[in-house]
Write a structure and sequence with these properties.
Elements: E1 4-10, E2 13-21, H1 27-34, E3 40-46, H2 47-61, E4 67-73, H3 82-94, E5 102-107, H4 109-121, E6 127-132, H5 135-141, E7 146-151, E8 154-161, E9 166-170, H6 179-196, H7 198-206, H8 208-212, H9 216-236, H10 251-260, H11 267-284, H12 290-298, H13 314-321, E10 334-339, E11 342-346, H14 351-361
Helix pairs in contact: 3-4, 5-6, 5-9, 6-7, 6-9, 6-11, 10-11, 10-13, 11-12, 11-14, 13-14
Bound molecules: nicotinamide-adenine-dinucleotide.
Length: 366
């Protein structure tokens, strides 16, 4: 087994490790080392992941914990709500979970966000571990401690910052991930390059064939580079007082599009469109050249990500940005690019600028 380890610090002290591995063979010893003598584990998963990996992971957990209980929700963003959290609380109570017990998230960002929020709030906080199984959760959602759920049309509106004890990434699980979900994760990877590392962005573009073929060496390189960018941002600003907002590049209009399409488009697809729209605003402000803007837009294509939408109700999309968490009364915290690899927070982006960016996304016959 070949394992990479990335340490995440909080206030300059070690907080947790992220392990990148080719299989689950190191999980038993890692869990035994950080959570010795714990009795119960709740494997928090979804209907798809349970069918593929539930038994394998349960059997490993049974070597570390006396009891393993599986809580499984319906796969998909529509489950990410307080009703599922209530079901999870009842499940934990009925199975006599106490503060010494542990929640283990096995799944994508939806499971990880909900398992983390359940762990943060059940009995005022019990330990949790992330076993992310989508590319998006491996590069992004499983680290940094943001947990939570959607409330009606308000995305991620209820949540908590709550750190996992361990993030264990088995990259081989990506082999069963549908193509569309794989590409969705790549949107967050490209975003991390666009905001922080022109070198990594160019590496992604230069190796798109190997990455799309999911060649393990390139998948590992993509994941560890992307995680190191996220690490550098969250260690400086764990609770999003400043620089961490850069990670929201593409997310203001991305979240609005997610809601507009009622989650029929994936998070990553909407983030890709949001990155293009934010790059368009940067271009219109004279920060990016014409070539830079079109390169950013067109480079989502080889990764099977959308760069345009069908005719849409632009006013309705805009209305969703008004309920965005990033709108804190002092104006929307919008992320723009100074150049590829360098993003900044701007509070002066107007509705007119956003309107023309969305209109630019609408597909036109050339
Ligand atoms: N907490 C954060 O910092 C953060 C960051 C980014 C995104 N998010 C959240 O993450 C969520 C999106 O996450 P996602 O894209 O992982 O979606 P997801 O969790 O819905 O997973 C996508 C699909 O893939 C399936 N799946 C998962 N792993 C699989 C595997 N190995 N093989 C086969 N199928 C598999 C799932 O069942 C689901 O159908 C959104 O709710 C978003 O808000 C959170």
């Amino acid at each position: 087994m070949d394992t990479d380890r990335i340490e995440i610090k909080l206030n300059n002290k070690k907080c947790y490790d992220i392990l990148i591995s080719d299989d689950f063979s190191g999980l038993e010893s890692e869990l035994g080392a950080i959570l010795p003598g714990r009795k119960r584990a709740c494997l928090f998963t979804d209907s798809n992941v349970r069918d593929i990996y539930g038994n394998e992971v349960r059997d490993i957990l049974l070597k570390v914990f006396e009891e393993v209980h599986i809580f499984s929700c319906e796969a998909g963003e529509n489950s990410k709500n307080l009703d599922t959290i209530k079901d999870a609380y009842i499940f934990l109570i009925e199975n006599k979970f106490n503060r010494q017990d542990v929640i283990i998230a096995l799944g994508g960002g939806v499971c990880g966000d909900m398992a983390g929020f359940t762990a943060a709030t059940y009995l005022r906080g019990i330990d949790f571990v992330q076993l992310p199984t989508t590319l998006l959760s491996q590069v992004d959602s499983s680290i940094g401690g943001k947990t939570g759920v959607d409330l009606n049309e308000y995305k991620n509106m209820v949540g908590a910052f709550y750190m996992p004890k361990l993030v264990y990434i088995n990259i081989s699980v990506l082999n069963t991930l549908p193509d569309r979900d794989y590409s969705s994760g790549i949107a967050e990877v490209l975003k991390s390059g666009l905001i922080k590392s022109a070198w990594f962005y160019e590496w992604m573009i230069g190796n798109f064939g190997e990455i799309m073929a999911r060649e393990p060496e390139y998948v590992r390189g993509m994941i560890s580079n992307s995680l190191n960018i996220k690490k550098s941002v969250i260690e400086k600003d764990p609770f999003e007082q400043g620089e961490r907002a850069l990670l929201n590049f593409g997310h203001t209009l991305g979240h609005a599009l997610e809601k507009y399409y009622d989650f029929s488009m994936s998070h990553g697809e909407c983030v890709a469109l949001g990155c293009i729209a934010a790059s368009f605003i940067s271009f219109k402000r004279g920060l990016l050249s014409t070539e830079e803007y079109y390169e950013i837009r067109d480079m989502f294509v080889p990764f099977s990500l959308p760069i345009s939408i069908e005719d849409a109700d632009v006013s309705k999309i805009l209305s969703y940005t008004r309920s965005d968490k990033k709108n804190d009364g002092q104006g929307l915290k919008f992320i723009l690019l100074k150049k590829t690899g360098k993003a900044f927070v701007d509070r002066t982006v107007t509705e007119d600028e956003m309107r023309s960016a969305i209109e630019e996304l609408i597909y036109k016959e050339e």
